[in-house]
Amino acid sequence: MTAIPLEIHLPVLPCRGGPDLARRLFSPLGWSVAAEPVELDPAFPEWGASPYVDLRLTGTLRLADALAQLYVLLPVLDDAKHYWVSGDEVDKLVRSGGAWLAGHPERDLITTRYLAHQRGFAAEALARLTELDDRPAEEADGVGKSGEPGGAGHDAGDRRLPSLAEQRRAAIMAELRAAGAARVVDLGCGEGSLLRTLLAEPAFTEIVGVDVAARALRVATSRLRLDQLAERQRARISLLHGSATYADPRLAGYDAIVLSEVVEHVDPPRLPALAAAVFGTARPATVLMTTPNAEYNVRWETLPAGERRHPDHRFEWTRAEFAGWAGAVAGEHGYAVRYVPVGPADPEVGAPTQLAVFTRGNEVGN
Question: Is residue 7 within a helix (H) or strand (E), and if so which, with residue range?
Answer without folding.
Answer: strand 4-14
